[in-house]
Write a structure and sequence with these properties.
525 residues, four-stranded antiparallel beta sheet
Length: 525
C-alpha cells in the first residue's frame, strides 16, 4: 500500500523508510532503518530494511524510546511484604523439603497475600501479587482464578505431602512444651462436598459448617498442625484421629473439656513423651471424694488471687484444683443477674453453687508444680486469640471454595497464613509497636511503604529507594529491622576548650630582648 506523500515528507532520521501496514491506529506508519543494500547484476540495487525505530503519528515522528503500558512497574508495595517474609523464611524452607519449588512458591505467595490483604478474593490475587514485592520474592507463578482453583484441589488431593509437612513440625516440638488442642467451626454452605454438615450449633443458625482442629505450641506461640473434619463430627471423636494423623508424640496436651483423655488412652500408651492436662466437670465425683475444695495455698506471681490444691490419685494421675477470686466474682455476679432477671432466686441453689464459683479442676498424668499447671491452661487463651485472628483479621471465617479437596487445600494455606500471623504479632510485640497501635493499623502503615524495584536489596531509610513514605512508617520499619536507620551524628562537645598545659607552651621571654654585644660593635664600626 502506497504511503501518502504527506507522511513521507515528515522529518525523520536519515537512512530510514516509512511503510504502511494497512491497519488503523497509532502504529499504522512504522519507520524502519535501512541496514544495507544488495546489488543485483543487471538490475537496480535492492535496499534491506531493519527493525522498526519509530512511527509517524499525526504528522510527527515518534521514536520507540517511550515504554508501553505493558512495561514492568518501577515501584511496588514493600513494607508489609518484607515484614511477612522476615518471619517466614524457615516455613518456605520446610515447604521445599516436601513440595516442588514451584508449589512452595505458590503456597507462600497465596498465604502471604492472605495475610497482607485479608479481604483478598481469588479473583484479586493476581492483581495484589503484581503490585507488591511478593512477585519479586516468589517470581514466575500464575495466580489467575482458574489456576488458583486447580492448585487448591491439587494440594487437597496430596494428603501425603501435607502430613509429611505436619509431621516435621510436630517432631520439632520440645518435650517439655505445652501443646494446646482445640477446634473451631467455619461456615461452609457448599452442596458439592461431604465435609459440609450441620453441627449442633449450626442447626439453630440454619447453615452448614466444617470443623478445623488445631494444635498450638504455647511456648512458641504458634500452631503446629491442623486438620479439617466434617462439621457434625464430635470433638472427642476427632481428637484421636488428629493425634494419630499428625503423629504428635511429644509435649503436654492442654485441651478443653470436650477432649477427654479417655479418648486417647491408646495413643498415650504408645507415646511415653506425650502427656495431658485436661479440666474435669465441676460435678465430677473425684472432686468431693478427694476433698479438692479444701485449698492449701495461694499461687504467687499470677496477677490474680488464686487458691490451689494438688493431690495424687489412683493410676499415677494427679488432680489440680484452683479457685480464682477474680473469676469467682464475675461468675457470682452473672448468676445473681440472671436470677434477678428471671426472678427465680433460690437460697439452697445459691449456696450449692457459691463454693464452685471461679473453680477449675484438672486431671493430668504428669507430676507438675501447681503454678506451672495453672499457667499452662491460663496461657491457652493465646489459642483463642489465634482463632479470633483466623476468623477476623485474615477474613477466613467462611470457605470460598467448592469440593472437599479444594476446602482441604485452602485450609492448608490458611494454616500457613495463621502461623505467619502469629509470628508477626510476636515480632511486633517484641518491638513494642503494639503498645502504640493495633496489629491491623500496623499492617496498614506498612502497606503504604512503597519501594523502587531497582533499589538496593538491603533497604536503608536514606537510600532514596522509597516512594512517598512518611517518617512514622520509617520508624516502624526501623523498629522491625526492615530498614537500616540513618546514622546519628556524633554529639557536639559542650563547654570550653581545655587549656593547654604550661609545659606544652613555649616560654615567652619577658621584658626587652637583650642586645647582642657583637652586633652592636659591628654597627659602630
Amino acid at each position: 500500500m502506497a504511503v501518502p506523500e504527506s507522511v513521507r515528507k515528515v522529518p525523520r532520521p536519515i537512512n530510514t523508510i516509512v511503510q504502511d501496514n494497512g491497519k488503523d491506529g497509532p502504529n499504522r506508519y512504522p519507520v524502519r532503518e535501512r541496514i544495507s543494500v544488495t546489488y543485483i547484476s543487471g538490475g537496480n540495487p535492492q535496499p534491506r530494511n531493519g527493525k522498526v525505530i519509530g512511527h509517524i503519528v499525526d504528522g510527527v515522528y515518534v521514536p520507540l524510546g517511550v515504554p508501553s503500558t505493558k512495561a514492568e512497574p518501577d515501584m511496588l508495595s514493600y513494607g508489609a511484604c518484607a515484614f511477612v517474609r522476615s518471619v517466614s523464611r524457615d516455613l518456605f524452607a520446610e515447604l521445599l523439603g516436601v513440595y516442588t519449588p514451584k508449589d512452595a512458591y505458590t503456597i507462600m505467595a497465596i498465604a502471604s497475600l492472605r495475610v497482607i490483604k485479608p479481604e483478598v478474593s481469588a479473583k484479586r490475587l493476581a492483581t495484589q501479587y503484581q503490585q507488591s514485592f511478593i512477585c519479586k520474592f516468589y517470581p514466575g507463578i500464575g495466580l489467575s482464578e482458574n489456576t488458583v482453583s486447580a492448585f487448591l484441589q491439587g494440594i487437597g488431593r496430596d494428603g501425603n505431602r501435607r502430613l509429611a509437612f505436619y509431621h516435621k513440625r510436630a517432631a520439632s516440638v520440645v518435650s517439655d512444651h505445652h501443646v494446646a488442642i482445640d477446634g473451631m467451626l467455619k461456615q461452609d454452605n457448599s452442596i458439592v462436598n461431604d465435609l459440609s454438615a450441620f453441627s449442633y450449633k449450626a442447626r439453630t443458625k440454619g447453615c452448614r459448617e466444617i470443623s478445623v482442629l488445631y494444635a498450638y505450641d504455647i511456648e512458641e506461640m504458634e500452631p503446629i498442625c491442623a486438620e479439617v473434619f466434617p462439621g457434625n463430627s464430635i470433638d472427642a471423636t476427632s481428637y484421636k484421629s488428629f493425634i494419630r494423623d499428625n503423629d504428635i508424640r511429644k509435649g503436654i496436651i492442654v485441651a478443653d473439656k470436650g477432649f477427654p483423655p479417655s479418648q486417647i488412652s491408646d495413643e498415650l500408651a504408645e507415646r511415653p513423651d506425650l502427656h495431658f492436662l485436661t479440666p474435669i466437670k465441676r460435678n465430677d465425683s473425684r472432686i468431693a471424694n478427694n476433698n479438692m475444695l479444701a485449698f492449701e495455698g495461694v499461687l504467687s506471681g499470677i496477677g490474680d488471687h488464686v487458691l490451689y490444691k494438688k493431690k495424687g490419685i489412683k493410676g499415677g494421675r494427679f488432680l489440680y484444683a484452683y479457685r480464682s477470686a477474680h473469676k469467682a466474682a464475675i461468675e457470682e455476679a452473672t448468676f445473681l443477674a440472671r436470677r434477678e432477671d428471671k426472678n427465680d432466686y433460690n437460697p439452697a441453689t445459691y449456696e450449692k453453687k457459691r463454693e464452685l464459683f471461679g473453680v477449675i479442676v484438672f486431671e493430668s498424668d504428669k507430676d507438675l508444680d501447681p503454678r506451672t499447671a495453672y499457667l499452662c491452661y491460663d496461657d491457652r487463651w493465646l489459642l483463642e486469640l489465634v482463632f479470633n485472628r483466623y476468623k477476623n483479621d485474615e477474613c477466613l471465617d467462611r470457605t470460598n471454595v467448592q469440593g472437599d479437596f479444594s476446602v482441604i487445600g485452602s485450609e492448608f494455606i490458611n494454616f500457613i497464613s495463621t502461623v505467619i500471623t502469629c509470628r508477626l504479632i510476636r515480632k511486633a510485640r517484641e518491638a513494642e509497636l503494639l503498645k502504640l497501635m493495633s496489629y491491623g493499623d500496623l499492617m496498614d502503615d506498612l502497606n503504604s511503604a512503597w519501594r523502587k524495584v531497582d533499589a538496593p536489596e538491603e533497604p536503608a531509610t536514606n537510600d532514596n529507594g522509597w516512594v512517598h513514605t512518611n517518617v512514622g512508617v520509617f520508624e516502624e520499619l526501623e523498629a522491625l529491622g526492615l530498614s537500616k536507620p540513618i546514622p546519628k551524628p556524633e554529639p557536639k562537645k559542650r563547654g570550653r576548650k581545655k587549656k593547654e598545659s604550661v609545659e606544652s607552651k613555649p616560654k615567652r621571654p619577658r621584658g626587652r630582648p637583650r642586645k647582642n654585644p657583637i652586633n652592636a660593635i659591628d654597627k659602630l664600626l
